[in-house]
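User: Sequence in, structure out. Go.
Assistant: Echoing your sequence, followed by the C-alpha cells.
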Amino acid sequence: MTEPKMNRRGFIASGLVCTGALALGAPALAATYPSKPVRMIVGFAPGGATDAVARLVAPYLGEALGKPVIVENRPGGNGAISNAAVKNAQPDGHTLLLSNSSFIVATPHAATNTGVNPVTDLKHVAMFATGRLVLLTSPALKGMSLEEIVARSKDDPSAYTNASPGIGSSNELAFEMFRRATGAQIITAQYTGTGPIMTDLLSDRVNMTVAAESSAEPYIKEDSLGALCTFGTERSEFLPDVPSSHELGIEGLDELMFWNGLHAPLGIPDEIVATLEEAFATILENEDLRKRLADMRLQTRLLRGEDFQKRVQQDWDMFGEIYQQTHG
C-alpha cells in the first residue's frame, strides 16, 4: 500500500500542530491531574512503620488531590523493587513512592547491581516528616556514662557489641558515625531484623543498638533498656531524660535523623510536582494529621524543590562515605 503524499505546505502545517501539542501537553495534563486514583508504592510489607505512615497520609492526600490515593506494597531488595517500580512508571503523577530515608540514601550503597540509583533515577518531591534515632543500651549498661563506655571499649575492644538490622541500614551507618565520632572500639553483629535484636539486647547478649524513637520509647519508659542519647541537637519531648548527642559533645551527628518523603518518576511535569507539593503543604496544616504523626513519634517538616534534592544528596554522600569506610 502506498502512503498518501503530503506537499511542503501541509508538512509544515502539521509540524506546527504537533509542536504546539507537545508544548501544551504538560500544562494540559497538569490541569486535569489527577484524572484517576493515584498509586502510592511502599517498599515495605503491610504492618511496618513506613506502611503505617503511608496508610495514614494517603486519605489526607487523596482529599487534597480530589482522587483516592491507594497504597500498594512492593517489598523486597531493601527498597530496590519499589524504587524500580516507580522509576519505570509513567511520569504522569499517578504512580508515586512513599519511602523512608533508609531505602533512598542508605541501603542502596550495599546493593549496587539493582539498576536503580534512587538519588538520580527518581524525582524527589517532598519530605514531610522526620524521626529521631536513639542509641539503646542493654540492662547491664544502664546508668553508665558515655565516657565510661568509650573508655572501657578502648581498654577492651571485645567488651561491647552493637547489633545492626542489616549491612548498609541507616541504623548500622548511624552507629558507625557515632563510633568514629567518639573513638569507641565496638564491634557490630549483623541481624536480620529488629525483633531478634531486641530479644538479645534485653538479655545482654548484645549491648547496644540504634533504633527509631517510636521503637525505643516503650523499652526506655518501662526501664527495661537504657538510652545513651538521641541523635540530634535537642532532647526529645517524649524522652526528656535522655540527653542529645549534641549535649554530650559528640560532633557530626546534629543532622542525623530519618525522614519520610514522596518521590516520583523522572520526567514528571513541573506543574504536577507543584500540585503535589502544595497538597502536602495543605495536609501538614491539619492538626489531626500532625497529632497522629506525633503519636508515631514523627515531627512534621516540609522540605521541597531544590531544598529536598539537596538534603537527599547530602544524606546520600554522608552515608556513602561511612559505608565505604566501614565495608570498603
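User: And one key feature?
Assistant: Residues 133-230 form a domain with the D-Maltodextrin-Binding Protein; domain 2 fold (CATH 3.40.190.10).
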